[in-house]
């Protein structure tokens, strides 16, 4: 029966069916064949979503939508440009830093690409970078979004692994900085060959005249928000869900004071959040029962035993986990893959004494890199659409950028204190 379930899942997935159908049909077939009550499936889906930490997800998504729709992302990018305008290839470096800042407000890579992609690509093109390279770099730097708090995938992992959501969120902070540092060093080296001396007159005027103080004033209220969220959670003042609610309220109050508040923007942001979170929650619910079916058939134990038979050293097993998750990330959307892989790989991690929180960061970073890889690279195709560049040209420029991402992944995998230091201080 396990073989039938897995084969049917793979056939539906590779056949182009939605991931919910690919997981739901084999699960329903299992219920019918095994004679289980149909209510088993409904109850399992309800239980998977009946979790207080999940409340934080729509709140943080709404926060990111509000910031983007009220035009604050442009102020952030403008501030970073003015701050670093004297550095050669500064728009490429700004791309990395802005992605880190915006990660603290969206928690998702696709949100970063959608919110800042056009602005970043246009600015890099004006300084002298090709449009294809600008799009590729925008996709690569957006990978910090799902790691840096508030991270939507890490919140979901915390629910799946039944561990502290606050610890999981804080675990992503130092790895996110590690990704930024590795990317910054690599981009600084690349700028020598990628930057062409053909800056536009508009770019030259910008570099000469803009005031740092004016740019700081425009973005200060949003720059304050990110450390405020993190500090409020670290000090225990707010839980992640309460921090998300407070951030949404703060943005609405600030925009009202500035005279920019609009009920239409609020409505559009709520609808955008609703569509995003419905997709996520439907996947979580159906995937929860699909993994329950796999658990009833002892599939996690089989995988754990297979890993331990293939290698007997934690270093090699972690390498195998990375390879497996990278491959899965090439064919599945992040939340779907995370929901399926977490209960399967947790026993493997426990067998080699890897902390569940450390495993969570490894999984999320792996799956995020998978968003940039064909054939189902959501991040790749999103940036190609936003930048109006053919996907194959973006991929050609993106290939060298896999190097710093993989280096950062290996650092996160084999330096556990980087992930576990902040959670251990809570």
UniProtKB/TrEMBL annotation:
- Coarse class of the protein's main subcellular location: membrane
- Pfam families to which the protein is assigned, alphabetical: DctM
* Regions that span the bilayer: 46-71, 92-111, 154-187, 219-238, 273-295, 315-345, 357-381, 401-422
Keywords, sorted A to Z = Cell inner membrane, Cell membrane, Membrane, Transmembrane, Transmembrane helix
Topology of this chain in the membrane: Multi-pass membrane protein
Where is this chain's protein located in or outside the cell? Cell inner membrane
TRAP C4-dicarboxylate transport system permease DctM subunit domain sequence ranges = 6-417
Q: What is this protein called?
A: TRAP transporter large permease
